[in-house]
Write a structure and sequence with these properties.
CMD-like, Single alpha-helices involved in coiled-coils or other helix-helix interfaces, 11 helices, mainly alpha, 196 residues, peroxiredoxin activity, Peroxidase, peroxidase, AhpD-like, globular, oxidoreductase
Length: 196
């Protein structure tokens, strides 16, 4: 049972219009956004931040940004965000082999060294205490430029917010996200947890 009940998608007209972004990303408006509508300024600011962070600016593709989000959410244990991130990666065209083997990104041949460096950065930046160090920086700069690193940290930071929001709220998870979670993450023990 969620801490706060999500409001109707029609509760706030501006939020509803902005939330159309999620129809492309997930196929539905997330319950997290519907809960944020209790204070519409938060829901609108969040959607605008999400759109800015997730904009495809080049080599950090839309699908790869969602894989970065998945690693971040996995590090913090937010099952809601894990399922959403893997679903969005799938919808944005992530390679099937990567989706099937995201848990093994460090060793699986479907992932390049550049991708491993970025995903290790996501893992390190999502830990408490933060584990980003000189080695992580050196590996990032070997493959990525500063603008791309800013994009990646934007994703990690956005999901840091979402991980805290959804785990604290016990946000009810939507059926589409459950399907993706079970398909790609279930073999490693993923379940809805508190997000029923």
């Amino acid at each position: 049972m969620p801490l706060v009940t999500p409001l109707s998608p029609d509760h706030d007209t501006e939020t509803k219009q902005l939330a159309e972004f999620f129809n492309e990303t997930l196929g539905f408006c997330p319950n997290s956004v519907l809960t944020m509508q209790h204070r519409p300024a938060i829901s609108k600011a969040f959607i605008n931040l999400n759109k800015a962070v997730m904009a495809n600016e080049g080599r950090v593709t839309s699908s790869f940004k969602r894989m970065i989000a998945w690693v971040s959410s996995n590090a913090t244990g937010c099952r809601y965000c894990q399922a959403h991130a893997i679903r969005a990666a799938e919808r944005y065209g992530a390679e099937q082999e990567q989706l099937d083997n995201i848990w093994e990104y460090r060793t699986h041949p479907a992932f390049s060294e550049a991708e491993r460096a970025a995903l290790d950065f996501s893992l390190a930046a999502s830990q408490v205490p933060n584990a980003v160090d000189g080695e992580i920086k050196e590996r990032l700069y070997k493959y990525w430029n500063e603008g791309e690193i800013v994009e990646m940290l934007g994703v990690i930071s956005l999901f840091g917010y979402l991980n805290r929001w959804n785990d604290s709220m016990g946000t009810s998870i939507e059926e589409g996200a459950v399907e993706s979670g079970e398909q790609y993450l279930g073999k490693h023990g993923w379940n809805k947890g508190k997000h029923i």
